[in-house]
Design a protein that fits this description.
Blueprint (H helix, E strand, L loop, with lengths): L4 E15 L10 H4 L3 H8 L2 E13 L2 E5 L6 H7 L8 E6 L2 E2 L5 H11 E4 L11 H5 L1 H5 L4 H14 L15 H14 L4 E5 L7 H18 L2 E6 L2 H7 L2 E6 L2 E6 L1 H6 L4 H6 L28 E2 L5 H11 L3 E5 L2 E6 L1 H8 L86 H18 L11
Parallel strand pairs: 3-8, 3-9, 6-7, 7-8, 11-12
Antiparallel strand pairs: 1-2, 1-4, 4-5, 9-10, 12-13
Length: about 450
């Protein structure tokens, strides 16, 4: 990202972690590395949890590693501080070879330079909130008064002021995770490592904790490596995302790149249900300003989401301007924004020919027609498109009635002709009643109140 120092905090090249007998032979044997994870297991009895992974974590970014259970993401984050020993490859932190560190140097890295926040909080049950938060400082040998003062400061930062003297069992799950986060922050590490920290929390508490992490990152700019299986969480927090499958990274990119340019069918299926308008910025739909478009319309930042851009254009009725540092970069109109939502390239969108509204013009009489629906949009209703339904005769209203109700002509008295079974044939009145019932049924069918069950 432009705001980050591109010198990596972590640099990983060709990293492998293999569990099993004679694991070291797997990365060095081309015949084995060419096999799938299942085939390696079948042939050697070894499990390749991390396979030939390479990436950099830039200073100040939130780097998210995501994937399904068993994809290798938690093993990978533990390799970064050698909580799990890599089998082969290269691993450096700030240019220093982590794999070459002795026990003393490695202990210093874990105590001062990188801190882990685990899924299971790991709080000491006999200690108070304050003493749990201060535990890392105690291990570092910081004096009691100093570490308790620092712990109190961090407890307030994560929203737990007033709870310093409680024990873990007196806290909710979300509060316990905040204690775990505060304990990691108290040592002022260069990097925070999160291993699925919120997956055990209720949805509302999880959202609060995600917002807490985003807030802390915005305030402090601390480098974070975040492990998750939740795509929405990854898209919300990540500057870049590495998507893993069977121990390998199948795609690495920004949230926008992952959603709009999936690398393969696996990634495409992963992001299929993601609302693009919540991820893609309006800068993707920009075009040059024409005429007086540079002087009117809402002003949006380039990283504004397409969803917010659609709202601005709909509210003002004119294209919105995209500006950065007071400089006009371009404009976005409703056609190009909707093209992004539909998964089309904005340049393939039909030109915006919507006439501008004149506030001084008198309303025009005449029939009103509904605007055509955007391609691929259901507009929140289950009503089928008009073209897919057969045309029905429209009953004209009685002249001057102004009610819009269909005019029913007076029924003539005619003798009922007997049918072959001796039953009377339907009269005009019967026919009108049937037509009226049919019209009501058709009207109800178009209201979107379909009661048929929805299948998953």
């Amino acid at each position: 990202m432009d705001g980050h120092d591109h010198h990596p905090v972590f640099s990983v090249r060709g990293l492998w972690k293999v569990f099993g007998p004679k694991a070291a032979r797997v990365p060095g044997d081309p015949a084995l590395t060419a096999l799938s994870t299942a085939e390696i297991r079948e042939r050697t009895g070894c499990t390749a949890a991390v396979r030939d992974v390479s990436f950099d974590v830039r200073r100040g970014e939130v780097f998210v590693v995501m994937g399904l259970s068993g994809s290798g993401k938690s093993t990978l984050v533990r390799c970064l501080t050698r909580l799990v020993e890599p089998t082969s490859g290269e691993l450096a932190m700030d240019g220093e070879d982590v794999l070459a560190m002795d026990a003393t140097r490695l202990r210093e890295l874990r105590r001062h330079r990188a801190a882990m926040v685990f899924q299971h909080f790991g709080l000491l049950p006999h200690r108070t909130v304050l003493d749990n938060v201060a535990y890392g400082l105690e291990i570092q040998g910081v004096a009691k008064a100093e570490r308790r003062a620092k712990a109190r400061e961090v407890v307030a930062k994560v929203g737990l002021a007033g709870l310093e003297d409680r024990r873990p069992h007196q806290l909710s799950g979300g509060q316990q995770q905040r204690v775990g986060l505060a304990r990691a922050l108290a040592t002022d590490p260069e990097v925070l490592l999160f291993d699925e920290p919120f997956s055990a929390l209720d949805p509302l508490i999880r959202r609060d904790m995600q917002e807490e992490v985003a807030r802390l990152h915005q305030e402090e700019g601390r480098t974070m490596v975040f492990i998750t299986h939740d795509l929405a969480e990854a898209l919300k927090l990540g500057d870049r995302i590495a998507l893993m499958r069977d121990g390998a990274i199948v795609q690495l990119g920004t949230p926008e790149e992952i959603v709009t340019r999936p690398a393969d069918d696996y990634v495409r299926d992963f992001v299929r249900d993601v609302p693009r308008e919540q991820i893609v910025p309006v800068s993707r739909a920009m075009r040059p300003a024409v005429g007086d478009e540079a002087d009117r319309g809402a002003v949006l930042a380039p990283d504004t989401t397409v969803a917010d851009g659609i709202a601005a254009v709909a509210r003002d009725g004119v294209p919105a301007r995209i500006e950065a540092d007071g400089e006009l970069l371009g404009v976005v109109d409703h056609a190009r924004l909707l093209a992004v939502v539909a998964g089309l390239e904005p340049d393939h969108a039909a030109p915006d020919t919507t006439p501008e509204a004149d506030p001084d013009a008198a309303p025009q009489a005449g029939p009103r027609t509904a605007p055509p629906a955007a391609a691929g949009s259901d507009a929140g209703t289950s009503r089928p498109a008009a073209a897919s339904r057969p045309a029905r005769p429209v009953a004209r209203t009685a002249a001057g009635s102004g009610t819009g109700a269909p005019a029913v002509p007076a029924a003539r008295k005619e003798p009922s002709a007997p049918t072959a079974e001796g039953a009377a044939a339907p009269t005009n009145a019967d026919t009108n009643a049937d037509a009226d019932a049919d019209t009501k049924a058709d009207t109800n069918a178009g209201t979107g109140t379909d009661t048929d069950p929805v299948t998953a």
